[in-house]
What does this fold into?
Amino acid sequence: MANAADGMNYAPKGKPNPVVKEGEFPFAVIGLDHGHINGQCNGLLEAGATLTKVYDPDPAKVAAFIKSFPQAKAAESKAEILEDDAVKMVAAAAIPNQRGALGCEVMRHGKDYFTDKCPFTTLGQLEEAKKVIAETKQKYMVYFSERLHVESAMFAGELVHDKGAIGKVVQVIGLGPHRLGSGGRPDWFFNREEYGGILTDIGSHQLEQFLYYTGATDAKVLSSAIANYDNPDHPELDDWGQVTVVGDNGATGYHRVDWFTPDGLRSWGDGRLFLLGTEGYIELRKYVDPATETQGGDHVLLVDKKGEHRFQVNGQVGFRFFGELIKDCINRTEIAMTQAHAFKAAELCLQAQAQAVVVATDGGRPAAL
Amino acid sequence: MANAADGMNYAPKGKPNPVVKEGEFPFAVIGLDHGHINGQCNGLLEAGATLTKVYDPDPAKVAAFIKSFPQAKAAESKAEILEDDAVKMVAAAAIPNQRGALGCEVMRHGKDYFTDKCPFTTLGQLEEAKKVIAETKQKYMVYFSERLHVESAMFAGELVHDKGAIGKVVQVIGLGPHRLGSGGRPDWFFNREEYGGILTDIGSHQLEQFLYYTGATDAKVLSSAIANYDNPDHPELDDWGQVTVVGDNGATGYHRVDWFTPDGLRSWGDGRLFLLGTEGYIELRKYVDPATETQGGDHVLLVDKKGEHRFQVNGQVGFRFFGELIKDCINRTEIAMTQAHAFKAAELCLQAQAQAVVVATDGGRPAAL
It folds into this structure.
């Protein structure tokens, strides 16, 4: 197994440097309902953006945010940020069903918008955002963190798209288990209208990856399903969901998301990605290689015609999305991600959620076949 | 004998654990079209059965078989075996679309039948076999080798059903990649009428596992799909297939099968099984732990509330199915497997194949969305 540790031929690129100078790309934050806002800000700051202001109706959330990001000044109101001409972008992690309206408001004030996933909870919100983009020419970008902020996932993109390491990608399988935790979740998390359903919410990471790795620009939901298998106290929570799609290029995707990460796992979730190609396959163990001595995440397993290859790429790839996004905002380009791609991923999730078969309710009551 | 790089001739050997004495359970073999017959015979012999005769119309296949199993006498004709009252069971690995008719003939001669999977290629064959069983009270058992002849799979059954290690099983995901190989496959392998389609064929292992691990006794196919992604020279070959099902207990299954094992993998296939439970999950790496130094197969990963646990169980579990089957035949019981279970698995595969959406043809031409 000499090649099990052979990463020499696939040397990943270094971390991207800041793409702008201090003050060149000021951004502000509105909406602190999801902790992902910290990751969004980290990514932008590492790429050189300048965080100026923060607003949330809850002063406690603002205080906690400023503790992590002391450069941010607490704004008196949302309007103070929206009307600040210096602010080029608003990053936001509002309650999911409020993200669409906030984004439209931000764009109508001449700023780009960078929201936590999921970007929308209804197809109507998506249509409204498309209209506002047509009017304003602003961007409605989405923090699909399970690819954009995971080095193994970024590396897999290089293997597939730049090196053709597995030939043509014919299928993506994504497993996205998450830890529910106990007591730490806000009420909206359990309210279907607010969180949008599991395929809308954490499923959005999955469909984005399907489109990205296969290169499909459109897709059709073949089948989707949701369940409440073990949470009778939260009947509106989908604790499990799956969707299978076929792309316009014939490639398929199967994606499962759930809230069943056991307490004994080191990580919040044993996220996996399997890319099946005509010339080989890739598996990502994104956050943990379970039940081994191996520490850390970002394990990339590649099997091709020549052998079995393994890489652990944390700290070696970086997160180029954020710098590319800043430059896209400045140059009005679409290098980091096209608007069409982000919205197609959103649309597929919403379709999958809307047409999902309910297989179990109220903590495991089987639906009739 | 067990050739780990070649699935067609993969014939595991276990510890002998005879349940009967020499001569107490004589069986014969008819039909040597698939190499699985070697595994079927190994399992029965290790459990104490006595192999008496073999018949195939091709003398070369018979000669090769007798080289491996010198105790078998070449019969002059199929009739010589069928009319031999001493023979209690006929083991067979005929061309798939001939398995049903052969089984009915065997049962009408007062013998039990033990066929390689897939047991049938059409629902009509299944119905006919049900009729003959009703008339004859004989058994039509199936060599679902990817569970019955895999120690990690047998061990997972103990973890789930005897120890309740992961609570209630809510989903099974099975990945069954296989190596196509070059030149070693007979013509029938590429002929749809004869092999039955990928979901009928290697998919049958998968649906059997879904029923077994979830405990469902009935299920509905939610969606299925097939493709010829990369084999334009064999347009009738499905080189990829998937199916998702929901059981009468609400548990779900997703199963992918394919012929894309790359040449660089040590094994004929990186078979995986993921069992998601309300209290934990299990992953099986059945034949290989890819891109690690670890040798051999039968890796069982269990994550529960207490931690992450790993077992490598090859040589430690054995294959109790075969001894149980022999005793079932003698005692007319159903300990090894019920007829209903075997036939439900077959029915689900045939339904999945019949209703499969074709997503790509002729080596990758996408079907219209």
Notes: Chain B has a mean pLDDT of 96.
